[in-house]
Amino acid sequence: MTTLPLLDVEHVTMRFGGLFAVNDLSFTAQPKAITAVIGPNGAGKTTLFNCITGFYKPQIGRMTLNHADGPVLLERLDDYDIAAKARVARTFQNIRLFARMSVLENLIVAQHRTLMRASAFSLAGLLGLSRYSKAERLAVDKARHWLDRVGLLDLADADAGSLPYGSQRRLEIARAMCTDPVLLCLDEPAAGLNPKESLELNTLLTGIRDEMGIGLLLIEHDMSVVMGISDWVVVLDYGSKIAEGTPAEIRDDPAVIRAYLGEPDEAEA
Length: 269
Fold this sequence. Notes:
Blueprint: E1 7-16, E2 19-29, E3 34-38, H1 45-52, E4 60-67, E5 70-73, H2 79-84, E6 88-90, H3 103-109, H4 112-118, H5 123-127, H6 130-149, H7 165-177, E7 183-187, H8 195-212, E8 215-219, H9 223-229, E9 232-237, E10 240-245, H10 247-251, H11 254-261
Parallel strand pairs: 3-8, 3-9, 6-7, 7-8
Antiparallel strand pairs: 1-2, 1-4, 4-5, 9-10
Helix pairs in contact: 3-6, 3-7, 6-7, 8-9
């Protein structure tokens, strides 16, 4: 029996005026795998993420997320439904935590939909009904589990904005995982990390893949992260796919080398 890809991107095109930010892009991301999308600055990586997560609607193309219950066409959903119904979670290149909330509260806020349903949109919470109390306990337990998983449990009561940069990166990933995603999209999670923190990130992400059995889609410039943890790599340049394959195949691909280093001039040749 053939396994369907978790995400199937088909001929996606996104342009702004006459500029093609993403041009006729097709690729697949497999379940229980880490797929990296790489390329020079301006290659269209973040625009692609914005299409997948609903911030943009591509002018052309289809993006199918294959759930256990059937396929979901992401381009037909609003951004909040992509998060809530399709269960696609995302982190951002620029950290977007609630800086003045505690570390624990940031993870509980991520579960607000579940809590609002359990509270009958505040009524059960105001009346102190047991269904809401149970949901609240479960939300705190899940938050504490992910804080422990990313090594931040001892800082649960600290303000999120007071954490060191690397810890804020891990907190953002933990917050995304509290939404129970089937696809986790990470926009440059290693940006600003030192080598030790990058290695810790590698361990965290491969652990999420192996233990949670979900797919990860990764934009990253740190090649030690990309080559160290990716199962498949897609390379973009000027919005178009120029290569895809295993990390070993991509490392030696002439088109990829040219995109990153440029064509040598005659004297260099």
